[in-house]
């Protein structure tokens, strides 16, 4: 994500609607009134992204529930409830599908405040949320969205925190759950950015992410299999023969196998690195040329390397193209700028 060029950021005051969030703890407000007292220095989750689009577009995509649920990975359904008056907080129901036909349901309240023309270019949307669903690790929480216009674009950022249930067991589970929530928020923010800036729908972004994942995992499996099974475990005769015909010592076979296993693991570890795909294409093409020059008899064999290598090259090309279109959580800031601390 490009660096935020606007140096002067507003002091972060957060509307939490009936909850005060300080240093990772949730405390009930007196009389249940709206509170503007949470601070981003607490242990909550902070995510920020720069979107090069106008305020109206981003506001529409984030405030309309039917649009919000499409880009936000954390929600499968968001439904606004009727309001008795225009001034009261907007209550809503939310649902998150967790697989196997199960879903977590909860409730929330939000207050969105648009700036008037000629203002300081800042808009805040605050909320509180809770769930009585026994499957939900989150018991209650609060947070905010903030929109800040800058010369470089629109800074869209969030901060939120929550309290877990299940006592000690819940706190232990939260060691894994909290980073996952932070990642899901950041990934969703970049999916929103792609929608706002490029018109790429959230469904298409998800499809690109899935295509990328299939291509990367398949290529990694191929590298690991061909390095591990015929070279390191069984030391297959044809592998040794091809090395000898290439003028290389047979003793190199385990090292070649280890290198291929390492390439496969690198495909998985360096998940965001697109360079792994063209590297795979180049190595596969070189392998076909080497076989054609030194061991041409394998080209017309039952399991010719030509078809395998061409298939892997095509798979790598598909993965490379999809990687350029998929959202990345790494494009977001995960800590507030110094001027907000």
Radius of gyration: 26 Å
Quote the average pLDDT: 87
Order of helices and strands, N to C? EEEEEHHEEEEEEHHHHHH
Detail the poorly predicted runs. Answer: 1-41
Helices, by number, come to 8
- Oligomer classification: single chain
Biggest sheet, in brief?
7 strands, antiparallel
State the end-to-end distance: 20 Å
Quickly count the domains: 2
| Counted beta strands | 11
Q: Which band does the percent of strand residues land in?
A: 15-25%
Question: Would you give an account of this structure?
Answer:
With 341 residues, this protein is of the alpha+beta class. The protein has 2 domains: 14-199 and 329-340, 2-Layer Sandwich (Alpha-D-Glucose-1,6-Bisphosphate, Chain A, domain 4), CATH 3.30.530.20; 206-323, no CATH class. Helix content is 42%, strand content 23%. The strands form 3 sheets. Strands 5-11-10-9-8-7-6 form a 7-stranded antiparallel β-sheet. It has a two-stranded antiparallel ribbon with strand order 1-4. It has a two-stranded antiparallel ribbon with strand order 2-3. Helix 4 (202-233) runs antiparallel to helix 8 (305-323). It is elongated and about 85 Å long. It starts with 13 loop residues before the first strand and ends in an 18-residue tail after the last helix. The relative contact order is 0.13. Mean pLDDT is 87; it is low at 1-41.
């Amino acid at each position: 994500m490009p660096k935020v060029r606007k140096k002067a950021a507003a002091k972060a005051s957060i509307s939490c609607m009936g909850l005060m969030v300080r240093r990772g703890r949730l405390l009930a407000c007196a009389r249940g009134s709206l509170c503007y007292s949470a601070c981003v220095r607490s242990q909550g989750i902070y995510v920020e992204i720069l979107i090069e689009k106008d305020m109206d577009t981003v506001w529409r995509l984030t405030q309309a529930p039917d649009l919000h649920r499409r880009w936000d990975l954390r929600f499968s359904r968001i439904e606004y409830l009727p309001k008795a008056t225009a001034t009261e907080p907007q209550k809503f129901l939310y649902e998150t599908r967790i697989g196997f036909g199960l879903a977590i349901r909860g409730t929330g309240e939000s207050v969105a405040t648009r700036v008037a023309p000629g203002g300081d270019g800042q808009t805040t949307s605050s909320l509180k949320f809770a769930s009585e669903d026994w499957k939900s690790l989150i018991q209650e929480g609060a947070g905010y969205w903030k929109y800040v216009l800058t010369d470089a674009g629109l800074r869209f950022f969030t901060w939120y925190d929550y309290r877990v249930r299940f006592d000690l067991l819940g706190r232990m589970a939260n060691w894994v759950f909290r980073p996952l929530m932070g990642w899901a928020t950041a990934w969703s923010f970049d999916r929103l950015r792609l929608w706002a800036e490029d018109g790429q729908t959230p469904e298409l972004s998800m499809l690109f992410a899935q295509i990328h994942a299939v291509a990367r995992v398949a290529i990694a499996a191929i590298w690991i299999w061909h390095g591990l099974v015929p070279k390191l475990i069984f030391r297959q005769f044809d592998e040794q023969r091809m090395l000898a015909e290439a003028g290389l010592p047979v003793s190199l076979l385990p090292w070649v196998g280890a290198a291929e296993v390492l390439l496969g693991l690198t495909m998985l570890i360096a998940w965001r690195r697109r360079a792994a795909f063209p590297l795979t294409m180049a190595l596969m093409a070189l392998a076909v040329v080497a076989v054609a020059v030194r061991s041409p008899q394998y080209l017309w064999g039952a399991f010719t390397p030509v078809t395998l290598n061409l298939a892997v090259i095509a798979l790598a090309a598909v993965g490379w193209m999809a990687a350029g279109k998929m959202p990345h959580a790494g494009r977001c800031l995960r800590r507030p700028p110094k001027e907000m601390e």
